Amino acid sequence: MIPNFIVITLTAIIPMLMSFIYYHPKVFGNVWMKAAQVTEEQLKKSNTVVIFIAALILSFFIAFSLFQFTVHQTDYYSLLANEPGFGEEGSAIMTQIAAFMETYGGSFRTFKHGALHGGLIGVFFALPVLMINGLFEAKGFKYGIINGGYWIITLALMGGAVCQWG
Length: 166
Known about the structure:
Layout: H1 5-11, H2 14-22, H3 25-36, H4 40-45, H5 48-70, H6 73-80, H7 92-104, H8 111-136, H9 141-165
């Protein structure tokens, strides 16, 4: 099962849009800067073009991997990928896959379902990773919660998009 790369690419923009909103000074921007121990002057000195290009590329990787986590039909393909005749048009295994996909190909392919999985990945993977890094970097609990909240929301939106339209 091949994802729609146009949707994956557009989904990669979600973290950029979310960061403009979430880290705006009137939302969590000022609190984040204090927790991250960063000043506006330091942020202004950074190369924003390089940062945003790198972030967009990394966000594409996240969107692509979320397709695997939110679209359960990919698991069916991975279970059968080593079977004789896989990938050969008209083979017995490809006929079986086609029949399965005709019956179940649309199951759980909703924004709501993808957002659930994306949010769970945020809570059970991104948040712990960020909290651990923040603790070892002596940034404190608030730093991890602020960044974790961003990723929970962002991954939920990204998961929803790739599951519904990917």
